[in-house]
Design brief:
Largest sheet: 5 strands, mixed
Strand order of the largest sheet: 14-15-16-17-21
CATH architecture of the domain at 65-215: Beta Barrel
Number of helices: 4
Distance between the termini: 31 Å
Strand content: 35-45%
CATH topology of the domain at 65-215: Lipocalin
Shape: globular
Length: 423
């Protein structure tokens, strides 16, 4: 027996697993909430080209997939509200956390939950997104999923329920949207819509570690940043102000006047500089983090009447990019907010998926007309428009990228795009 060869093979397997874990996609818009990946992925694909697999899902949903090592996790709903015209029996609504294989897309397990009585009745607006919109987050032991008024659940990677905790039962508009994020031994959940608060839950038990109230009309997923001094801040953009909190305690450290409207997009950051967008009239603020008290007069760098109401931006090499919810590809210079380009995307539908990129290319997902691929450049350069599935499928979810694979989720299926091997 060649022991040296066995040792080398084992070392290679371990290093490959470590690389795959490092390049996972652990939360909404990736490990750092940037929407950026480390490896290039294909720029052209179809149902017959560069498609590794497609898997039908047990129900609809708008949540993004998250990836840890060899597993993909996402949420769906079934039993009610699949069609507005014939919604079915409200008592039959079921919520799902689903785990699939990264390798071949096979469903490894599907855990169902009853919905809370407070869940909204289906309307055309609610059905646009459904009852499984928040994206889960995942660490090396557990996956954490939010279902708005039906609470936050934690499961093992094998699908065993660890806990379920309510963070309020309020509803509004199109339903829940904010996604949980992890921080050290806690899961942080913006429950502005459900309870007017942001919560930190113990990862092991679901117990409330801290709760900060007076979070106003924020559907946004929080962002944690690293400051130059080594400290961390939890950034939450809400109606009227941008907040910096201590993620360990929930204590408010600073505030800056912000968007005078409800807020949906994530904050993106470069070092201690924050880019905060939102509002129906579309505004973006650049703010320096790390202050104390009201920092509007001292830490606001610039603000412009550009941005997006729903979709989150991507920051790459000094430029901010959006797949604007009004179907516009938008680019601003990050140093001063100057507009670089503003071009119509190939759809007349609203866009709900946020932009992602691989460092060289930008991927802008439309609901009904495929994925627009652009060069990551302040000069508008269209590379491709790629379609998958049938014309009835709707792509509301932000894509995920892990390694050299792009994961696209429609309301019917999950797709894995990967460059085909060539001889």
């Amino acid at each position: 027996m060649n022991y040296a060869r066995l040792i080398l093979a084992a070392a290679f397997a371990l290093s490959s697993a470590a690389l795959q874990a490092e390049e996972g996609w652990s939360r909404f818009r990736g490990n750092s909430a940037s929407g950026l990946a480390k490896q290039p992925i294909p720029t052209k694909w179809s149902d017959k080209e560069n498609l590794a697999w497609r898997t039908d899902l047990p129900g609809k949903g708008s949540s993004s997939p998250v990836i840890n090592r060899d597993k993909v996790f996402l949420t769906t709903y079934s039993g009610y509200g699949q069609a507005v015209e014939s919604p079915g029996d409200r008592a039959q609504l079921r919520l799902h956390v689903v785990c699939l294989s990264v390798t071949d897309g096979s469903i490894l397990w599907d855990r169902e939950f009853d919905a809370a009585d407070e869940e909204q009745a289906v309307t055309k607006r609610v059905a646009d997104h459904g009852y499984a919109s928040p994206t889960p987050c995942v660490d090396n032991e557990s996956v954490f999923a939010s279902f708005g008024p039906s609470g936050v659940v934690a499961l093992t990677h094998d699908g065993e329920l660890k806990w379920r905790t309510s963070v309020g039962t309020g509803t509004a508009g199109f339903g829940a949207a904010a996604s949980p994020i992890e921080f050290e031994d806690m899961v942080i959940m913006n429950a502005s819509i459900e309870d007017g608060s942001v919560y930190a839950l113990d990862k092991k038990t679901g117990a409330i570690r801290w709760r900060t109230a007076d979070i106003d009309r924020a559907w946004t997923t929080p962002t944690i940043i690293d400051l130059p001094n080594g400290n961390k801040e939890l950034i939450l953009n809400q109606k009227g102000s941008i907040l910096g909190l201590d993620p360990a305690t929930g204590k408010q450290l600073w505030s800056c006047d912000g968007i005078q409207d409800y807020v949906v997009p994530c904050v993106v950051a470069k070092g201690d500089t924050l880019f905060c967008s939102g509002g129906r009239s579309n505004k973006t603020f650049a703010v320096k983090a790390g202050g104390r008290g009201d920092v509007t007069a001292t830490h606001l760098i610039w603000d412009v009447s550009r941005g997006a109401n729903v979709t989150s931006p991507l920051l790459d090499d000094g430029y901010l990019y959006w797949s604007h919810d009004k179907a516009i590809a938008l680019c601003l210079r990050a140093s001063d907010g100057e507009e670089m380009f503003r071009e119509r995307m190939p759809t007349r539908s609203r866009v709900y998926a946020s932009i992602v990129g691989d460092g060289k290319h930008l991927f802008l997902t439309t609901r009904d007309a495929g994925v627009l691929v652009l060069a990551a450049s302040p000069e508008y350069t269209e590379i491709a428009v790629n379609r998958l599935g049938n014309p009835e499928e709707r792509f509301n979810a932000t894509p995920a990228i892990a390694g050299n694979q792009l994961f696209l989720r429609s309301d019917a299926a999950l797709y894995c795009v990967k460059k085909e091997k060539t001889d």
